[in-house]
Design a protein that fits this description.
By secondary structure, the protein is mostly helical. It has one domain (5-70). The protein contains three helices and no strands. The protein has helices at residues 5-46, 51-58, 62-70. Helix 1 crosses helix 3 (62-70). It is rod-shaped and about 65 Å long.
């Protein structure tokens, strides 16, 4: 039996739904943790913790650490 384009699209959407929802939930949690980390990164760098060490401990990108550590 040949599937119609609509059926193929519906199957594709169904396949994306669960992992997509999981990813969205994880990204939301990452944003929450980032708000906790932001001032801590700033404090750590100001206290003299090397940015490479901050990166090792947090998994943050160098650019993110640089931006966050320069914020007021």
């Amino acid at each position: 039996m040949t599937r119609t384009p609509e059926q193929i699209r519906a199957e594709a959407v169904a396949a994306l739904t669960e992992p997509g929802a999981e990813r969205l939930a994880l990204m939301s949690r990452v944003a929450e943790v980032d708000e906790i980390l932001r001032p801590l990164v700033r404090q750590a760098v100001a206290a003299g913790v090397p940015k490479t060490r901050v990166r090792e401990l947090t998994g943050l990108a160098r650019g993110t650490i640089g931006t966050w550590s320069e914020e007021d």
